[in-house]
């Protein structure tokens, strides 16, 4: 999907760049199916994993029919398979969510490092979509704005970790399944809106915006 410069003038555009609302919602269905399958089957990890795999396959087929790139579909399906294998290997249902917890930890660290080295991921994503490559880094005000807005994304991952880790430690599988849904699209939507607000507020008065980096 080609993203125009105009499309980036709001938080909804960032949602499309990062996979969109549909992608975020679809990603919650296999974990939710695992929780439901595990519970109704008398806490059988195998049947819970089977429910997640079947749901993941249905979601993958639906995504392919809607024109999603096969690579993205395969990555999503492999994630479900990996989560299921971990739970089957350890024999602990809560470990189905361990891969997601590790992913959030790695993402928080990666975004934090990108800010520290002044290559904020938010700038890289927007710059690539706008065809600017890395020209935005030559604009000190825009670089600073992207850096500040990227901090919001670090907090998004940290919030998930603060919720998921205690639930995983306690083995509360039902709560993990529910919060996996609650902390996906709703949290992403809030993160998009707040990061966009921070980005715009961080630009000095008179700055033409992200579409027009001011390069000396």
TrEMBL record:
Pfam families tied to this protein: DUF3159
Which classification does the entry list for the species?
Bacteria, Bacillati, Actinomycetota, Actinomycetes, Micromonosporales
Entry keyword set: Membrane, Transmembrane, Transmembrane helix
What is the organism of origin for this protein? Actinorhabdospora filicis
Q: What is this protein called?
A: DUF3159 domain-containing protein
User: In the record, which residues are listed under signal peptide?
Assistant: none
- InterPro entries named among the record's database cross-references: UCP010219
The transmembrane residues are 38-60, 72-89, 109-130, 151-171, 177-199
């Amino acid at each position: 999907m080609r993203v125009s410069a105009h499309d980036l003038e709001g938080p909804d555009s960032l949602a499309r760049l990062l996979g969109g609302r549909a992608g975020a919602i679809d990603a919650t269905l296999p974990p939710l199916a695992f929780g439901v399958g595990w519970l109704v089957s008398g806490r059988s990890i195998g049947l819970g994993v089977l429910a997640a795999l079947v749901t993941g396959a249905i979601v993958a087929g639906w995504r392919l029919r809607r024109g999603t790139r096969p690579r993205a579909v395969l990555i999503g399906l492999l994630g479900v398979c990996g989560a299921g294998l971990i739970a089957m290997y350890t024999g602990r249902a809560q470990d189905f969510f361990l891969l997601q917890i590790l992913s959030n930890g790695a993402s928080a660290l990666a975004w934090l490092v990108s800010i520290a080295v002044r290559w904020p991921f938010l700038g890289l994503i927007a710059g690539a979509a706008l065809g600017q490559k890395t020209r935005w880094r030559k604009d000190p005000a825009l670089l600073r704005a992207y850096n500040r807005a990227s901090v919001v994304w670090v907090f998004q991952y940290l919030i998930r970790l603060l919720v998921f880790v205690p639930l995983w430690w306690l083995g509360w599988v039902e709560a993990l399944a529910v919060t996996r849904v609650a902390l996906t699209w709703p949290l992403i939507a809030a993160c998009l809106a707040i990061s966009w607000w921070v980005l715009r507020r961080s630009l000095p008065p008179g700055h033409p915006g992200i579409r027009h980096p001011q390069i000396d």
